[in-house]
Specification:
The protein is α+β, with helices and mostly antiparallel strands. It contains 11 helices and 17 strands. Helix content is 30%, strand content 28%.
């Protein structure tokens, strides 16, 4: 039986480049070599697509593109029915490689946000995960809030602010309406990049500047006091598997980039330390949100649960961290799926 040709994309132009390398390393090393012919395709920080023929360790440590001039350039063949990638050698020689599916292990802008998914749809290449529309909406926290609002699930109150229209007075007015402390975050970024918790007016300008470095649109949100809860959703041709709830104890003021990837202060509880009925409410809310945004394949849905056991939706990630210790794979493994089996099921559900 012939192997499935699976292109795995990693890297990218977003601020989550390093996270993508770590996620991709786990996928590359866990994909079953008996089932797949793997085509690793890295995207540099500058946006060049390059076929990587070397060791997966070089993906993990970031050295894979140290000599980009020696690597084949990759483009997507948009010829109808081709379902292929075009590879151009440094000599100029071109070849076409037909691809059965693409796993875009890309986080953040220019990868998780529907851009790559739309191009793959034009090329007729099945893609693991959400399509272009769901990726774009879920990536934009303001659009996500608007889409989830009709469900009646509580969300943090927020004010949307835009670069060029926001001055110090607007920042102060927004914070005053929400009450300190507030969170400032980019509308379209992940892994808590550019997110700040602001306790006073004196911190507003610096926090806004950090968020605006990531996006021209930012959100100021009220602080929700509660347990941080995450749920994994796996969708296969309309059927959803919803994991149990994980609880994050970040060991920091909030679950920021350092707590997620650089320090060992975080603690996790699976299942979350919540009554079973409340965990059921969270899981039901996760599936409703997943379906309302017309997601597919996979997503991690994040919530707060207050002391009164009220469920508050925080955000959804359509390509969550995918290292072997990331919460999405951990939750699916808790549900009984081995990491390699999770990859198999995601690839089988690609469309």
């Amino acid at each position: 039986m012939s192997k499935t040709v699976l292109a795995i994309l990693f890297g990218g132009r977003s601020s989550e480049y390093e996270v993508s390398l770590a996620s991709a390393y786990s996928v590359l090393t866990n994909a079953d070599a008996e089932k797949y012919e793997i085509l690793p395709v890295g995207i540099t920080k500058e946006g060049a697509w390059l076929r990587w023929p070397g060791s997966y360790e070089a993906v993990r440590d970031g050295s894979w593109c140290a000599d980009a001039s020696s690597l084949e350039r990759v483009t997507v063949d948009l010829t109808p029915g081709a379902s292929a990638l075009l590879l151009r050698a440094p000599s100029g020689a071109m070849r076409s490689v037909r691809v059965d599916a693409v796993f875009p292990v890309l986080h953040g802008a220019y990868g998780e946000d529907g851009t790559v998914q739309g191009m793959l749809a034009l090329a007729g290449i099945p893609c693991v995960g959400c399509g272009a529309a769901a990726g774009a909406v879920a990536m934009d926290k303001a659009l996500t809030k608007a889409s989830v609002a009709p469900l009646g699930i509580r969300q943090a109150r927020c004010v949307v602010l835009r670069r060029g229209e926001t001055d110090a007075a607007a920042l102060r007015a927004a914070a005053s309406s929400l009450g300190y402390p507030v969170f400032l975050k980019p509308a379209r970024a992940g892994s808590s990049v550019g997110v700040s918790k602001v306790h006073s007016e004196a911190q507003l300008d610096a926090a806004a500047a950090a968020a605006f470095r990531e996006d021209e649109k930012i959100l100021m949100e009220e602080t929700i006091v509660g347990r941080e809860i995450e749920v994994a959703v796996l969708e296969e041709h309309g059927v959803c598997t919803v994991s149990d709830c994980a609880e994050i104890d970040s060991g920091a003021e909030f679950y920021d980039y350092d707590a997620k990837y650089r320090t060992d202060t975080s603690r996790f509880y699976i299942p979350a330390r919540l009554p079973e009925s409340v965990r059921g409410d969270v899981r039901a809310a996760a599936e409703r949100i997943f379906r309302a945004l017309e997601c597919r394949g996979l997503s991690r849905v994040d919530f707060f649960v207050t002391e009164e056991n009220e469920v508050v939706f925080n955000e959804i990630n359509t390509l969550p961290g995918f290292t072997s210790i990331s919460m999405y794979p951990k939750l699916m493994m808790h549900a009984g799926l081995r990491y390699s089996e999770l990859i198999d099921r995601l690839v089988a559900a690609a469309r």
